[in-house]
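Fold these two proteins, one after the other.
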Amino acid sequence: MLGAYLPILVLVVIAVLFGLGSVVFSSLIGQKKPSKVKLAPYECGCEPVGSARERFSIKFYLIAMLFILFDIEAVFMYPWAVLFKRLGMFGLAEMGLFIVILFVGYIYVWKKGALEWE
């Protein structure tokens, strides 16, 4: 039984060795000439303004989570579209229910004001 997992174990060992080897090898042969320009934070070629420790509004994280939520929900429609003909009327009803639940969630979030950026 354990022999079936041997290829997975070999793959994990190779991946870990490759990762560690890359880090060690680059630290051994890499150039170490730090300068003020190299140690400065890079922001698309612009001079950095303010602190990197600036606090973000909770609205930023809320909008980001809602975007991910609705984006992932849209991804579930791709497998349904591929199997649309084989699923028949049952698949259509299930996707209709899915879209209704998604729409109700969207209206709830909208009414709560979670999408307002102020």
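Now the second one:
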Amino acid sequence: MQPEQTTDAAEFTVIGQTMEKVTFIYGAFLCVWGCMVSALSGSESVTSLIPAFIGAPLVIVGLAAIQLPQQKKLLMHIAVLIGLFIVIGGLDFLRGFTVEGGPFANPWAGLSKGMLLFTGLIFTALCVQSFIFARKNRNPEQDS
């Protein structure tokens, strides 16, 4: 999946969406994922909702970046920090290889951890690419 670049070179996009919208969509996906896994697995543990707990701040940050473009730089740095936390949390998937039954000894937990690792890496990489794009295309007059 190659990120797109708009013709005015002012905005980094992925599949036609700005990173603020990608952040919102990814956060919403995590919220839905956490709720669906909890419901489908019949889990009574709050840990099955961890993706939703991580997704909610991304939804808020994405919406705030859309509504407050003057604060977008700060908000998107917060988003990538959350993305790094998602990757770190997803790394627990690898710990599953050291226990009997492997990472899918608890299939729903293994699936969620693997999803967090995979999607977190993609989201964080896209954020870094957007920062590089912004740095290369910034207007020197914007620097303060």
